[in-house]
């Protein structure tokens, strides 16, 4: 029970901070990328969202067809790492042909995360608490994005869109690593068969 509660808290925290560090900055950065890197053409702005939608459709199709062997934390951390890497790479390139594939990767990873999280909630949450858990997930998303956009606007005002993308990607990486380490530690602590090395040594000496 405690392990399940810890896992629920972990992916709620992961979703909140990734929305804070990745989703919000990306939504602020897209129009600025078009203005600063893609000559401000409306067609380029439309292409970015079209490419992201194609990536999302591919993600929905693949994740619904093939079973994922990793657990929810490993899966979301892996996909969110893809988002973080895409943000960092978008800060390094100015050519449309190099930027658009990373936009598609963000759409792909975001779609997979949505399906995996909702599926995990539906399969593990008690029927009496299903609505509460989904509400908490939606609160994590809806609550983080406005804060993230406000911070992103401040960063862009004083720096550039490349700085915003770079630091949002790095902060997302740090968040993913922290959550993964916490999850690993909580699993190790909750395993009754795991014994410290010193305890094993004392038992061997006693025998």
Task: Give the helix/strand layout.
Elements: H1 2-37, H2 42-65, H3 72-92, H4 96-124, H5 130-158, H6 161-190, H7 197-206
Helix pairs in contact: 1-3, 1-5, 1-6, 2-4, 3-4, 3-6
Written account of the structure:
- With 207 residues, the protein is mainly α.
- The chain has a single domain, classed as Up-down Bundle (Growth Hormone, Chain: A).
- It is 86% helix and 0% strand.
- It has helices spanning 2-37, 42-65, 72-92, 96-124, 130-158, 161-190, 197-206.
Structural class: mainly alpha
* Strand residues, percent: under 5%
Question: How do the helices and strands follow one another from N- to C-terminus?
Answer: HHHHHHH
CATH class descriptor name: Mainly Alpha
Quick synopsis:
The chain has about 210 residues and is mainly α. The protein has seven helices and no strands.
Key traits:
mainly alpha; about 85% helix; Growth Hormone, Chain: A; 7 helices; about 210 residues; disordered N terminus; single chain
